[in-house]
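Subject: sequence -> structure tokens, single chain

Hey, anyone have a minute? Need the predicted structure for the following. Not urgent.
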Amino acid sequence: MNLGCVLLGDITSILARRLNRKVYGRYHDEMVRQHNLSIHALKSSNKEAYKATNKQAHEAFGKYFFSQAGAFTLSIWPVPFGLAWMDLRFGGVPLELPFSVPGLGDSVLYPFFFIPMYLAVRIAYGRLMRLFPFYQRILAWTKHGGEEAMLPFVDLLKPSSESGAGEVDPARTSDINTRQS
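Reply:
Had a minute. Here:
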């Protein structure tokens, strides 16, 4: 039952991420872009540009975060149905424990075993499946977002010459933010 819930949830989540990868990619790219602009503004000591881009970065992060939370939710939707099926079969049947658990006593119902077993199966499934090349291809099939990486805050400690090529001009940062407002 647990493995079935994990498999069905994973298939649903993969399909949803594949279908929505363009939207997720836009959210991801906007989040990275705004974060990087805010780092450049902070590095150039432009407080107004930093506040504007950081606010937009937070909004973009919220969109991306909740889109990914929705994708995760799709991976656990079979659990309530599995619990309902178990309740039809084992509802009200106490399972005797060889010891007494504080607060529960010496007997429990099926969720006591189902939920920890589901978590263990889900963790093992995730670790095991990532070892297989075909599953890696499936995950690559759902990949979203560009290749641009978020700049770490450690870059603020580096002198301007070390920050590398492709750096956004801090003067442009304020121009971009005033046009977006």
